[in-house]
């Protein structure tokens, strides 16, 4: 196979943002450092692709919002005078945001419902302990310093005595 050669005018070449960034990185490393045999290293120069995509996404969001607001609030005769004759019905200017708001609200309700279905009933022993529970182990030598104890569960009997002890005394 023969390799594709770049055109004489680089401005006519259409490239993706990722290709453009890689070309810019290669130019920067070749220009800043003297040519060596290991000049193909990938340095951390230039913007990260995630930053580029975030910037492009934010600009796209601003432009889409501006187009939506112009379409929703500009009278049809003004759009026709500019030459825009084919556009969606004005019904969708209110219906689409309403559908999105209702979908988000319903998804929150459904998510909370699934969590409530996955929760064991109050009479189940799974609410007290499960396979991940750890009993508190106390191993102190006489006269030695007390080490920091590992993470463990506090027993129900200890919680009950701490919370309800004063009620038994009265």
UniProtKB/TrEMBL annotation:
Residue span, PIG-P domain: 50-164
Listed name of the protein: PIG-P domain-containing protein
Main location: membrane
Topological category with respect to the lipid bilayer: Multi-pass membrane protein
Keywords in alphabetical order: Membrane, Transmembrane, Transmembrane helix
Transmembrane segments: 52-71, 91-114
InterPro entries linked to this entry: PIG-P
Superkingdom of origin: Eukaryota
Low complexity bias locations: 1-24, 33-47
GO cellular component: membrane
Compartments, as annotated in UniProt: Membrane
